[in-house]
Amino acid sequence: AQERYASLRNLPAQSKCGTVTRLYMNAGLMADLPSIVGSGAEGVGLFRTELQFLIRNQMPKRDELAKLYARVMDAARGRPVAFRTLDIGSDKVLPYMKPQDEPNPAMGWRAIRVGLDKPGVLHMQAQALIRAAAGRPLTVMFPFITELSEFNAARSAVLHQRDREAALGRQVPSELRIGAMLETPSLAYAPDEFFRLTDFISVGGNDLKQFFFAADRENERVRRRYDTLNSSFLRFLRLISDRCAENGTTLSFCGEDAGRPVEAMVFAALGYGTLSMRPASIGPVKSLLRQVDLKAARGVIDDALAQGVETVRPIVMDWLAAQGE
Ligand code: PEP
Ligand code: MG
Q1: Which of 244, 248, 266, 289 has the fewest beta carbons closer than 10 A?
Q2: Under the GO molecular function aspect, what terms does this record hold (predicted)?
Q3: Does this complex have an ipTM over 0.95?
Q4: pLDDT of 188-209, one tens digit each?
Q5: Nearest CA to ligand 1 atom 4
């Protein structure tokens, strides 16, 4: 199978109907980057910057981070890298930050909430990214955005740092793309302005599912209780896709489910044009996407959702089995 996937490496994830889905990889450490070549990933759809903070015993300095980000961009060899600003709190506690005593850390003071309330680190990170990307394109995304005003504030902070660097006479990124992760259900119902202002939206399915089903992603007893292909969840993913289409917003999915071929096919059929996953999943996902007609799959999914089934999985599996006949 590995060899078969290797032969697909340089081929697009083009489905029978002609739709091309972009397959990106998730990363978080320098050591992850070499897989970008072997896996055939078109870029890094989620770079979890907090990992480099978590492996240190003290807060990294701006210049050190700038060097690190420049090395990440070099290793990506011109392919885009979506740097997600620090997603700490919840399960990720920095050893050199005062631990917060919170009853529900997953719903607590985490991610962009910390970034906006204590902006020193967000500003430092933005400066490091802007310096690292001098003269080349830069993609930044914010974790756990819950309403438009949070996105506005975080985006303004990054733009302000860019303008500041320019005013100091330094070379700035040739292009700056700023996106939001959609990980809390409320954001799907944000005003149209949110969808128009973001350069892209990336659904963080791990968190989105935990909040949609109220099922803790860290709790073994409940984490797999609800199917990702549950009709309610798919209707919700379809709504997000529709809102993006109406507003011309680029949409991707970067949670773990994007690396499961059947789930990936369903997301692609629902209009998720970019899927970001662990590198080893790219081959299997691409292989399936190339064998199906995504427009036909969309019809099957829409029909199943209209029927009122609890999960569309059996219908999708039967349809897939019939494709091979
Ligand atoms: C997610 O929530 O789906 C996601 C991609 O981010 P993380 O797993 O780092 O929370
Ligand atoms: Mg998340």
Answers
A1: 248
A2: kinase activity; metal ion binding; phosphoenolpyruvate-protein phosphotransferase activity
A3: yes
A4: 999 999 999 999 999 999 999 9
A5: 204
